Amino acid sequence: MKATENRKVNEINEILLPLSKNLKNVEGFVIVSKDSLVKVGNIDGEDLEIISRHMAVVMGSSEMLYKRFNDEVEYIEIKGKKHKIILYNLDDFIFAVVGNIKADEIKDKVMELKFKVNNIDGLTAENIIEEIAL
Fold this sequence. Notes:
Elements: H1 2-22, E1 26-33, E2 38-41, H2 45-67, E3 75-79, E4 84-90, E5 93-99, H3 103-112, H4 125-129
Antiparallel strand pairs: 1-2, 1-5, 3-4, 4-5
């Protein structure tokens, strides 16, 4: 089981490391299930739980709206005066990036996560962040 967890951590690190190195304006990330259970993230404290709950609500509402048009949500961009939050739809999971970035710049890399996150139950934020400096 430990070898499987390590492999999953390495696969996700391979995707996240280039994102963190190339994008200086990324302040944090979180991967949550659609029912708002945090899987991996580097946002501290209460903010992580609050953000994950809101992410699930926003994504769920958007998916319901898009189904009415026979379409699917790829990502949602929420822009404030100082920050941006981009929510990427990874089927059963949501990947959120907080910072001052353009959604299209990292979309392809983030979408690679869609094939990797479905079995990340053993991952922790500490495992991921060990090799990532966001």
